[in-house]
Write a structure and sequence with these properties.
The protein has about 500 residues and is an alpha/beta fold. The chain is about 30% helix and about 20% strand. The protein folds into two domains: about 200 residues, Lyase, Ornithine Decarboxylase, Chain A, domain 1; about 280 residues, Alanine racemase (TIM Barrel), CATH 3.20.20.10. The strands form three sheets. Strands 4, 13, 14, 15, 16, 17, 18, 19 and 20 form a nine-stranded mixed β-sheet that branches. Strand 9, helix 7 and strand 10 form a beta-alpha-beta unit. The chain binds pyridoxal-5'-phosphate (PLP).
Length: about 500
């Protein structure tokens, strides 16, 4: 049970406990699918990231990336843990204010900002509006002028840094849609430095999400320091902050029982696990050397470093509980290229083998009530969420099953239907799983409910928060029939 985390996620009396609460008992009260988020784990993750501040010699500001999950109860838990926020739209900005964040605790990102969103950000005095293009910079200046205010802005650079993550999660490549070319940004600093309506306070980049290597943070920090120096030398502007974005990885393969079923690159990405504080300590040391050589230590030590992680705060703080609603048997079919050593690997003649290397002749299919309408990355990015039985968490998980969700959509499966082998073909659970059994998908907190839809007329699920004071609270109710037509005229 390498998925267990002492004091947080454990197996007791055979079943799964989260922060001391019986997960199956929660499903009896609230039904499934059900997300359970842990406030103590959110606090733990924020405290871990705050250690970055101890390892560097400048100011530090931690902003949780609200896009990863922004139900108000979670935003409040983040706020109570002493963390600021990164928002991506006027809607997220509004939710942040509702959750009790002050404007100066908010960083406003996004690519296609509308005027009303810029107005909302300026009126609320956000810490910085991250600017995505020269056009947008002029729009922000014009808006601030009209409002008679000065907007804090930070320019987003696209420095051409490649991370070894999923292609859809790369954001700092020149081929990506984000940010400005460094030369454009330098020109903008020169052009707008005397603007009465813009406070050019920082620069920003985000390398990508689930970055497997800490080295990209050193590279990013070095690029940003070089930009900081050039801006100071060419314009005299002393920037107040450098924002290195988010992207710290979460180890989705902490339970490695199926790790061999993944192709090497995919495995490396899912199993990535390094300490952000250590990564930033070595990044800081490298950049400090450069600052010393350039006689610019004061510039470096005078800045605030911002980080805006989402996944590493929220992903492992939640589980998704789902009930098996249907089952069937089918002759074995291998959907993907098998990998050496994997469960359900194929023998030389293509026969699918079970974990003890006996030929499998029948696939046991389990149909759950958790589909890609609530776990979209399972379909779009072939994301892996480790699956266990919540009712029999303490039993051996050695029997292979084919798993699929409830949607009337052939892509709604827990394996890689395109046959590229990016996910295991079978999942391992206890023997004889039948309809009615409650299962748990782990590490489900990030980019799940935040991307959910009512596809197929399915109700968006409720969310329970296990609180730091030992109680539980329903922070989002399940949709009802009326919610399905709430906006239909
Ligand atoms: C600009 C920006 N900042 C922060 C994040 C958060 O990234 P992660 O959840 O990987 O930490 C993202 C996510 O894509 C992003 O686009």
């Amino acid at each position: 049970m390498t998925w267990a985390i002492e004091g947080f996620l454990e197996s007791k009396d055979r079943s799964l406990y989260i922060d001391g609460h019986d997960a199956v008992a929660l499903t009896r009260e609230y039904g499934t699918p059900l997300f359970v988020y842990s406030e103590p784990r959110i606090r733990h993750n924020i405290a871990r990231l705050k250690q970055v501040g101890d390892n560097i010699g400048c100011g530090f500001k931690l902003c949780y990336a609200a896009k990863a999950m922004s139900t108000l109860g979670v935003l409040r838990a983040v706020r109570d843990a002493g963390c600021d926020l990164e928002v991506n739209s006027g809607g997220e900005l509004w939710k942040a204010l509702k959750a009790g964040f002050r404007g100066d605790q908010l960083n406003f990102n996004g690519l296609s900002k509308e005027v009303w969103e810029i107005e909302l950000a300026i009126e609320n005095g956000v810490y910085a509006i991250q600017v995505d293009s020269l056009y947008e910079l002029s729009l922000i200046e014009e808006t601030a002028k009209r409002l008679g205010k000065k907007a804090n802005v930070s320019l987003r650079l696209v420095p051409g840094i490649e991370s070894n993550t999923h292609s859809g999660l790369q954001t700092a490549m020149l081929t990506s849609k984000f940010g400005m070319m460094p030369d454009e940004a330098f020109g903008a600093f020169a052009e707008y430095k005397d603007s009465e309506h813009l406070n050019l306070s920082g620069i920003h980049l985000h390398v990508g999400s689930q970055n497997p290597s800490p080295a990209v943070y050193t590279q990013a920090f070095e690029e940003m320091f070089a930009a900081l120096l050039r801006i100071f030398r060419e314009t005299g502007i002393r920037l107040q902050h450098i924002n290195l974005g988010g992207g710290f990885p979460v180890n989705y393969l902490r339970d490695g029982s199926q790790a061999d079923d993944f192709p090497a690159e995919q495995r490396e990405m899912f199993a990535a696990d390094f300490s952000p504080a250590e990564a930033m300590r070595s990044a800081w040391a490298e950049v400090r050397k450069k600052a010393e050589a350039e006689n610019a230590l004061d510039l470096l030590e005078g800045i605030t470093l911002l980080l805006e992680p989402g996944r590493s705060i929220i992903a492992d703080a939640a589980i998704c509980l789902t009930t098996v609603r249907n089952h069937k048997e089918r002759p074995v079919h291998q959907s993907s290229t098998p990998y050496e050593g994997g469960v359900a690997a194929a023998s030389a003649d293509g026969v699918v083998l079970s974990s003890d290397h006996r030929p499998l002749t029948t696939d046991h299919w389990l149909l759950t009530d958790a589909g890609f309408n609530i776990l979209l990355s399972m379909e779009t990015y072939k994301w892996y969420y480790h699956l266990i039985s919540a009712e029999r968490a303490g039993e051996p998980h050695e029997t292979p099953y084919k798993l699929a969700g409830p949607l009337c959509d052939g892509g709604d499966v827990y394996f890689d239907i395109e046959g590229e082998g990016r996910l295991p073909d079978h999942r391992l659970l206890p023997e004889n799983v039948e309809p009615g059994e409650v299962l748990a998908l782990l590490n489900c907190g990030a980019y799940s409910l935040a991307q959910a839809s009512q596809y197929n007329g399915r109700f968006l699920p409720p969310v329970v928060l296990t609180k730091a004071d030992g109680t539980t609270e329903l922070i989002r109710r399940r949709d009802n029939f009326e919610d399905l037509i709430a906006n239909d005229l």
